[in-house]
């Protein structure tokens, strides 16, 4: 019986890189969580303990911080692409590099109705992220960019139905024509190429996801997600496909009848667990090959 | 040797009450986390297991949901005061009721530049809360209101120094004239009475905390907090005292010199643990007696 | 109108101190989370920003790590007492020091039925902790020790009833003679003095809490907690009082009747929120004065 | 441009199923977290909102609870296989079912040196889990079982080196011949077939992972993981491959030299972020085809 090393990957996860731009009195902040990983021909490191092919995870960390200054941090996609290319160049045994970046959003604090120059408050409304995979050398170099948003908590208080579903002997759910629909949306979209105005694309897609969530009359969370994805693909030719992972955050109507109180869709209990979990992909018929774009992306591979 | 029951309290924690106002097509949402508790003469429940004085926590939960409809939810302080009074009335053995409410903020989703009628996105920027204690019966009834904000994450990228501190043989910290100052602020202020426009007071105090954080040139987090509290007391006569609990979320300057790169206050690593923790009270000389206002408020008693 | 600084405290929280004893091939590990704080006359630090009385939180951190080597770590109570005394001595403006230590438990890994010398696996079954407050100088020095356990998750599948409770118009809870009783226990006991064999006392009290939970036929969680506390006080003269904070982790019987299936106390859903929360103190009639023993202990003050 | 639905899956996540066996006075408890999902031809649900092919997630929940009684819960693998087959049978449009189960371990409470009949304390030492995928109908039915353990926190205080690694201009890490090695292990192994004594296999594999972690002299976490996996494959012919995801939980030696104190590998600070993250697969040369075994398993696909 013979045994061998299969798929593998190693790197430094969750480097909390904070970059301040302070060339003028009006500072800017980029607040990132950066995870990097290399994969490839690392048999010796595993089987004999010989680390001569292994660029330490500590070096990956150092590079992530040094590049924040040397290369700067514009769009997180550009920063991730630069890091991925660097790691492949610095690690001859590596076949691929995976760079994941989350960006936390800050707004300027208001003082007397004006934005302050160097004071900020963290905002909610979703966390922007990207996953970049870089593979190959020289003319074979390929780069894949999947960007997205997580923790986008949305709710509509009407305009959501759920009925006409399949029933079996374990089905007790009543049909409804009016319920609360709420989710903590995770969306990730794969770009067809890297010639993209990343910030503009992200802002528009986020806006589109929100407005479609609001305006689609929902017959199921599946149908809402599909409509959201369809709109993104229709209006964003740079996007090849989009994937969603959306917990159905149940809001159960509370029965107030024991107290002689009617409750026509007004008082709900927000439940924690269990929750529905809807995952869906919306894609173009002629989408480019995904290659390693979705490599090791939790919940999306 | 005799043994007896000391301080005690029981209730239902973290009722996730969601109230939709839908009388017009333009819905409103109040999204709360409600914890209620009673304290008093509950010896029998503990020593003999006789529950005849105990209003079940399940009943407390039912009341929190029923009142969301029967009484409605305006300012969380009013809702909490109403619940507290109710529980004292319904429970003859109780001497005090403690009601804690957190409110999660939602904004309307934008569709074509307009606020949508019934679709919302959860925002960040702090969680509003209140702790209400109600005691006594009839003419002896007293109500205490402590309101506050948590999870208000703020950062300033300059305008913060730390030097001139006490040194002993374990001191290695260099002095600095320019550092990042960041915290996840928890502030709680005790109202002097209950004749308050709660929403207006909260909005103004939150704005004041933010603007003072921005404009105070900081010599230490202690000094920043004191200045923030002082401003609140100066401008809000309805506030008797204010307490802060503020982790000093360290951002360490990264040493890039091994790579021949200068780092003049531009690249930082945001650390998790350990963190400084600064707790302070700012109070009026003539503040009213706190009574049970701070009863069982974690970190503030 | 005059404003002044009230109660205050500052320190370094959550120092993750790991101490290995390796004087022989059979290593030992102490794995701690240490939080330290000073309180006292720190007006200048707050009002003028003058830090000359402030021993930096960074120095507190350094001391916690240095003492792990210089003084060693035996029982966490001794380590905390030593740190508290040190900080008071090093900080003339301080009136009190508060040291909180959590200890994570490890067991030796079994290899061929033998305990390994230097390999360990983290166990559950509760986290031991202590809160030590030290005050005063010279002959006035007082030290208070409150030790405890958290995250002790226990459940009994029968032997628990709940009935005969007070009812009002919002009461719908059915009475029951057989339910699951489960909690994630937090217990903290105040020692009457510091002449205690800390490890022995902790081990015996933990064992007693568990065995009493098991053997008390429960008429309510309140009664179970009281009985547990009473046993501790009866058998441990070194303990002045004991406090509990115990969520009633509800396990609801699932209604399987729609599927023609009986469910005589066999299938439950474990709920997250809301949960009952029972807090109680059991004390001696002649308990010593608590002084600052419970100072700033979340949930217990 | 045409757009279509791609990969999709829906179900009910995190059903907290607790099953008590109480046929004799000596009760038994199975405490599970169950997530179920269906995938297949659900285009209509997404594109037109027609739910006639959709077995509600609520029904999946009901079935998970009902089967806990009707079928009982033995090994979690058997329970998951039964649920998966049921859902495929009940849902004609489904092509595959994915069932994930975590099991929380409880020990009997000791009373006077004896195991109590119906009182339990939750233990640590890792969470057992399984992911079962069932596909096809009739003779085409295939079932895949991947079982594993998570949250297995292990540490060795010596016997770990790291040197001889690749260096570039961003490398500053010193080489070491003696460091702490610690991880919170996640391991998942794919069974070659379903004719397995699940409990016995799990217990032995867990024991083997622990003992190999202890006894392998480590030259890198990669090499330790490989050795652990190799041992499992050598001794467990029922296992086709095993995958690891292991954070390198860094313990940094604290520099006590500023205080004139030596620190020969005795005092460490346990860091939170960043952490190394090592992922590796160990597989047989003649492993069976994985099919959908790793479908949607976060971190392992």
UniProtKB/TrEMBL annotation, chains A, B, C, D:
Its EC number is 1.7.3.3. O2 binds at residues 57, 248. It catalyses: urate + O2 + H2O = 5-hydroxyisourate + H2O2. The keyword NAD does not apply. Keywords: Oxidoreductase, Purine metabolism. One of its GO terms (molecular function) is urate oxidase activity. PROSITE patterns: URICASE (PS00366). The active site is at 12 (charge relay system), 57 (charge relay system), 250 (charge relay system). Pathway: Purine metabolism; urate degradation; (S)-allantoin from urate: step 1/3. 5-hydroxyisourate binds at residues 57, 162, 179, 222, 248. One of its GO terms (biological process) is urate catabolic process. Pfam families: Uricase (PF01014). It comes from the Bacteria. Belongs to the uricase family. This is Uricase. It comes from Kribbella soli. The gene is pucL.
């Amino acid at each position: 019986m013979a045994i061998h090393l299969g798929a593998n990957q190693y790197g430094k996860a969750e480097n909390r890189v904070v970059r301040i731009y302070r060339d003028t009195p009006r500072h800017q902040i980029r607040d990132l969580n950066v995870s990097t990983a290399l994969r490839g021909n690392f048999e010796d490191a595993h089987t004999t303990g010989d680390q001569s092919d292994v660029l330490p995870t500590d070096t990956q960390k150092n590079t992530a911080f040094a590049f924040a200054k040397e290369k700067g941090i514009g769009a997180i996609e550009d920063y991730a692409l630069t890091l991925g290319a660097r790691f492949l160049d610095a690690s001859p045994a590596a076949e691929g590099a995976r760079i994941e970046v989350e960006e936390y959003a800050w707004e300027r604090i208001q003082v007397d109705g004006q934005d302050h120059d160097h004071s900020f408050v963290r905002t909610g409304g979703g966390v922007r992220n990207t996953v970049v995979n870089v593979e190959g050398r020289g003319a074979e170099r390929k780069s894949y960019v999947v960007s997205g948003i997580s923790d986008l908590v949305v709710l509509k208080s009407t305009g959501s139905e759920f009925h006409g579903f399949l029933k079996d002997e374990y089905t007790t759910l009543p049909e409804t024509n009016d319920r609360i629909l709420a989710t903590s949306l995770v969306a990730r979209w794969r770009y067809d190429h890297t010639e993209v105005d990343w910030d503009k694309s992200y802002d528009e897609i986020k806006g589109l996801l929100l407005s479609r969530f609001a305006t689609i009359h929902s017959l199921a969370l599946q149908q809402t997600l599909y409509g959201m994805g369809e709109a993104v693909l229709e209006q964003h030719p740079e996007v090849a496909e989009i994937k969603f992972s959306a917990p159905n955050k149940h809001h159960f109507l509370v029965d107030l009848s024991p107290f002689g109180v009617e409750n026509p869709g007004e008082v709900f209990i927000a439940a924690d667990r269990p929750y529905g979990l809807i995952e869906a992909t919306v894609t173009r018929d002629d989408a480019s090959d995904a290659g390693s774009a979705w490599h090791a992306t939790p919940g999306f591979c």
